[in-house]
Amino acid sequence: MADERAPARSAEAAGPAGESAARPEAELGLRERKKRQTRRRISDIATGLFLTSGFDNVTIADVARAADVSVNTVFNYFRTKEDLFFDRQGDHIEQIARDLRDRLPGEGVVALFRRRFLDGLDSRSYRTAFHEGSDIWTRTVRASPALMARQREIVQEAQDHVAALLAEETGADPDDITPATAAAMIFAAQSALIEQIAARKSAGETLEEMRADVYAAAARVFDLLEHGLGDYAAAPTGPPPDAPPAPAEDGLRPGPAAGK
Q1: What is the pLDDT of residues 73-97, one digit of tens each?
Q2: Helices 134-142 and 30-53, interaxial angle, to 10°?
Q3: Which of 53, 173, 179, 209 is most buried by a 10 A CB count?
Q4: CB of 120 within 8 A of CB of 130?
Q5: What does the alpha-carbon distance between residue 158 and residue 121 come to, in Å, rounded to a whole number?
Q6: 148: part of which helix (H) or strand (E)?
Q7: Cα gap 246→81, rounded to integer Å
């Protein structure tokens, strides 16, 4: 996925891109820099075509023609057409790994992802869908079953990678479900936030109109992650209004009254 050069790419729930490359381009050789520039140019052109014409209506040949390269060249850089749309998922996963490794002293994984998400809201990053154009991005993805399927795969790949990193860092046993559960909860929470933001933007709300609600929702969601659901949605105390009759002393449910 591209960065904020193109309208609205929604994030971990919509599909990853990288706000920074895995290595600064200044550290790369001339040949590698040119390859990256070519890849990015093809991706930028493809993104514009997909967003204006619809993903399923654009062929690889259309992209190659617009980018003035051969179809084989496109496939040299991108394995599938879907990867042209979600073009930097690898960089995104690498960025998560770096953030986990470099988190603040004593900072837990939930606190890290809270900070990342709030930073994304502040910068109006594609990762949160809280930016101009996210409605176009959302509409394009939802109009294509292929993109919807690939988006789910990308989120799962990122989630599995985080689970593996947490297992390695905590020394969890192979059969310990805790790292996978923690990663699943974090990604589910982020996805819920992103989906709500994208839906409100698609419904016509402006960023400023939804801003206070978006930050408040993020705080509530990450508070639930950090402190647990606990008493959330607990049933009222005392017997329910229409409680069934108490069981007989022998523990059997009373039968119907005689004659009925």
Answers
A1: 999 999 999 999 998 777 888 899 9
A2: 80
A3: 179
A4: yes
A5: 20
A6: helix 145-170
A7: 63
Residue 39: closest CA among 27, 51, 31: 31
Joined tokens for residue 56:
């399923």
Angle at 51 between CA 117 and CA 49, to 5 degrees: 130
The amino acid present at 30, given as its one-letter code, is: L
Query: In the structure encoding, which two tokens stand for residue 193, read together?
Result: 């936030």
User: Which of these, 190, 201, 224, lies nearest to 13 by C-alpha position?
Assistant: 190
Alpha helices, H only, 23-133:
30-53, 60-67, 71-77, 81-85, 89-101, 109-123
Least confident of 140-149, 209-218, 223-232: 223-232
The pTM of the full predicted model, rounded to 2 decimals, is: 0.77
Q: Find where tokens 């992802």 sit.
A: 113
- Could you give the count of Cα atoms lying within 13 Å of 231 in the half-sphere of its Cβ? 2
CA of 116: how far to CAs of 124, 128, 205, 236, 250, in Å? 12, 10, 24, 37, 59
Token output for 11: 């994030």
